[in-house]
Amino acid sequence: MRRKLPLVFCFFAFFFYLLVFPLPALESARHGLLLWYHSVVPVLFPFMLLGNFALRTGLIYPLTALFYRPLHLLFGCSQAGCFAVLAGFLCGFPVGAKITSDLAAQNLISADEETFLLGFCNNLSPAFLLSYLAVAQLDAPKLGPVFLGTVLGASFLYGFLRSFSFRRKISMQKERESAPLSFSFALLDPCIMNAIENTVRLGGYLVSFSILDGCISHLLAAAFSSFHPVGLLIRAAIEVTNGLHLLAISSLPWPAKFVFLSACASFGGFSALAQTIGIAHMNRKKSISYIKSRVCITLLSVLLCAGVLTHGKDF
Q: What are the start-end ranges of the H helices in 21-170?
C-alpha cells in the first residue's frame, strides 16, 4: 500500500487542481491542444504516414541502400535497422521509437536490435533544434549547429559506444531477408488510419502533461518564485517544448542556460518519455532500458556542452 501512496497523492492533487482551478486547467488544456494542432499534426503526421507506407511496401530497403554500409560500420545495425536510425535522427520524437517497434513487430529486426535502437534512435528533429530552439527561442541562428552537436551528437555518440556490446550479441545472427516491393492503393487506408491513431494519441499525451505542468506550477508557486532554479528545472523536465521556452526566457547565466537547454532537449521531458513508451508498446524491461539510455545521453550532452564552453571560441 505504501508504494501506491505517491500515485494516490498525485491523483488527488491533479483532481483537486481541476476542481479548484478550473480556468487555469482549461488554459493548460487549450495550450496543449494548440501545441498538438500547430506542431504535432503538420510535422509528425506526414512522417508517420510515410514511415508506415515504407514499411508496408518494402520501400525501406531501396531507401536505405545508400546509407547501409556507413551506418552498419558505425552502429552494427541491419539494413532495416538503418531506416530506424534515419527516422530517429531526422523526424523527431516519437517517430524513431514507433518505426523501431514496427520493424520488430514485422520481424524485420531482432529483439536485441530493437532494444539497442530504441536507446538512441528517438530524438528531437534537426528542424526543431534549428528553428524552434535556436531561432524562435534564442534568436540566434548561429547556435543551431552547436545544439545539433550537443543534442544529436550525444545520441550519436551513445549509439556508437553501445554498439560494441550490441555487435557481440548479434555476431552469430543472420541478416533478415529483404521483403519484396509491393504496392496497392488498399495499403494507403491502414497507413492513414495508423498515422491518425498515433497522432491523436500524442495529442492526448500533450494535453495531459500540459495540465500536469499547470498543476505543478501552482504547487511550486507556494514554495518558489516563478523562475527559481529548482522550480524552473522541475517544470522544464515535464514537457520539452514548454521547458525550452522557460529556460530560454529565464535569467540564468548563459553557460548554465546553454547546458540546461541542451540537457532538456537531449532528455526530451517526461511527456516524451510517456509518449515513447506508450506508442512503442514497451514492457517494463524495455521501459527501464529506454529511460537509462535517455539519462546517459543527457549526461553525454552535458559533457559535450562543457567541452564547447571550455574550448569554443566567441561562444
A: 22-35, 41-57, 60-64, 68-75, 79-90, 95-105, 111-118, 126-127, 144-147, 153-170
Query: Cβ-count burial of 268 within 10 angstroms (0-12 exposed, 13-18 middle, 19+ buried)?
Result: buried
Which of 148, 151, 92, 147 is closest to 123 using CA atoms? 92
How confident is the model over 82-112, as pLDDT tens digits?
999 999 998 888 888 999 999 998 888 888 8
Q: SS3 of 227, please?
A: coil
The pairs formed by 80-87 with CB atoms below 8 angstroms and a separation of 24 or more are: 80/108, 80/109, 80/176, 80/178, 81/109, 81/113, 81/117, 83/54, 84/109, 84/117, 84/121, 85/117, 85/121, 85/159, 87/47, 87/51, 87/121
Sole residue written with cell 552498419? 72
Q: Is 139 exposed, middle or buried (0-12, 13-18, 19+ CB in 10 A)?
A: exposed
Q: Each residue of 135-172: pLDDT tens digit?
A: 989 999 999 999 999 999 999 999 999 998 887 766 55
pLDDT at position 227 is 63
Distance (Å, whole) CA 170 – CA 173: 5
Q: Please name the amino acid found at residue 131.
A: S
List all residues 6 or more positions away from 94 whose beta carbon is below 8 Å from its beta carbon: 122, 202, 272, 275, 276, 279, 280
In whole angstroms, give the CA distance from residue 296 to residue 301: 9
Whether 302 shows a pLDDT value over 80: the answer reads yes
What are the grid coordinates assigned to 185, written together? Answer: 492503393
Residue where the block lists cell 531507401? 63
